Amino acid sequence: MSLLVVFSVTGCGGSKYPPTFKTTGTVTLDGKPIEGATVSFYPIGTNKPANGETDSSGQYQMSSFNQNDGATVGSFRVAVQKQPKVEYESTPEGTPYDPSMESSEPQAASDMGQSENSLPKMYADPETSGLTATVAESDSNVFNFELSSK
């Protein structure tokens, strides 16, 4: 009986997602690799958006449906931005909530650990970045983005 269930799940219809293809590259600013930047592919047409994050060498891998699964076929406008990581304090599990510890005044974004994009602003918007990518049915979709601070 269980073999029949496994067969019916894997044997009919294939994947519920469109195919993706390995999509990688490197992001640099004035020739130096950028660590911790988010690379976002915005579709031109009906393809699916994709995102990736650069490592210490500026390299990224795109993800559409699952981690590092690549991008769908098609053309994209690209945005790159780098926001600092936000760390939140947490209460140890089992500690009772104490409403007197909260402030009634709203906090400014800078007080909550949020700050501006540390890359030139133009790259954060796919309409002004000037960056594009066209993903093909191939395992060699490599898009290197050389950003300039000038």
Outline of this structure?
The protein is mainly beta. It has a single domain, classed as Immunoglobulin-like, CATH 2.60.40.1120. The protein contains 1 helix and 9 strands; from the N terminus they run H-E-E-E-E-E-E-E-E-E.
Give a structural overview.
The protein has one domain: Sandwich (Immunoglobulin-like), CATH 2.60.40.1120. 6% of the residues lie in helices and 27% in strands. It has 1 helix and 9 strands; from the N terminus they run αβββββββββ. Strands 1, 2, 5, 8 and 9 form a 5-stranded mixed beta sheet that branches. It is globular, with a radius of gyration of 21 Å. The N and C termini lie far apart (66 Å).
Layout: helices, strands, pairs:
Layout: H1 2-10, E1 23-29, E2 32-33, E3 38-44, E4 50-53, E5 59-61, E6 74-81, E7 131-135, E8 141-142, E9 145-147
Parallel strand pairs: 1-8, 1-9
Antiparallel strand pairs: 1-2, 1-5, 3-4, 3-6, 6-7
Name the poorly predicted regions. Answer: 1-13, 102-114
How is the quaternary structure best described?
Answer: single chain
**Helical residue percent?**
under 10%
Beta strand count? 9
Radius of gyration: 21 Å
Structural class: mainly beta
CATH architecture: Sandwich
Shape, per Cα inertia axes: globular
What is the total domain count? 1
Instruction: Assign the CATH class.
Output: Mainly Beta
Q: What count of helical segments does DSSP give?
A: 1
From the N-terminal CA to the C-terminal CA, the straight-line distance is 66 Å
- Residue-averaged pLDDT: 81
Fourth-tier CATH superfamily name: Carboxypeptidase-like, regulatory domain
